[in-house]
Specification:
Chain lengths: 114, 115
């Protein structure tokens, strides 16, 4: 089955700096890679996703890149702000006719200091 | 629009007691997922349903755990008997599409503490 590894587990940056979180996946059949943000006391919320037929996707200050050959994908947050502080999860979903599982990484706690 | 609704938000119980967690998915969503979150293991998928039918329960830890979805608007996750290692935050999530893509909408979670 799919296995997703995520690094780093914690990340501290100064406001205005960039933050990068990296994930690797094991199942070459995976074709969908979302990123979720979890604020304290709440459930995770989708912030951006990418499909395997695309190498990069951008939405304002956040971007995701995908390298299918190496089986890794990354989240990039530019011009970080204190409200970006949260736990971020990557995930992967294998393309299969009989499953719509989403397997999550172990999370990265991002702290943005003003 | 109401999101995914979970209850209770917090539960403290003693080892050996039965625990029932409840979930109301977003209306019109066809898929429902139960996840467990711990510091050590992150977000683990326990079980998911499509159109009220359990599709994959391979993540359910053991026979003490069971889940049901009697109709499209209600699901339960039951632990009987509960053990201290079951302490975690349990999330319910729902999704509109019956495909492997698309946004998963999470509830706010049920924090379970087993003493």
């Amino acid at each position: 089955g799919e296995n997703v590894e995520q690094h780093p587990s914690t990340l501290s940056v100064q406001e205005g700096d960039s933050a990068v979180i990296k994930c690797t996946y094991s199942d070459s059949a995976s074709n969908y890679f979302p990123w979720y943000k979890q604020e304290l006391g709440k459930g995770p919320q989708l912030i951006i996703d990418i499909r395997s037929n695309v190498g990069e996707k951008k939405d304002q200050r956040i971007a995701v890149t995908l390298n299918k050959t190496a089986k890794h994908f990354s989240l990039h947050i530019t011009e970080t702000q204190p409200e970006d502080s949260a736990v971020y999860f990557c995930a992967a979903s294998p393309r299969s006719y009989n499953t719509d599982k989403l397997i999550f990484g172990t999370g990265t706690r991002l702290q943005v200091f003003p | 629009d109401a999101g995914v609704i979970q209850s209770p938000r917090h539960e403290v119980t003693e080892m050996g007691q039965e625990v029932t967690l409840r979930c109301k998915p977003i209306s019109g969503h066809n898929s429902l997922f139960w996840y467990r979150q711990t510091m050590m293991r992150g977000l683990e998928l326990l079980i998911y349903f499509n159109n009220n039918v359990p599709i994959d329960d391979s993540g359910m830890p053991e026979d003490r755990f069971s889940a049901k979805m009697p109709n499209a608007s209600f699901s339960t996750l039951k632990i009987q008997p509960s053990e201290p290692r079951d302490s975690a935050v349990y999330f319910c999530a729902s999704k509109r599409e019956r495909t492997n893509t698309g946004e998963l909408f999470f509830g706010e979670g049920s924090r379970l503490t087993v003493l």
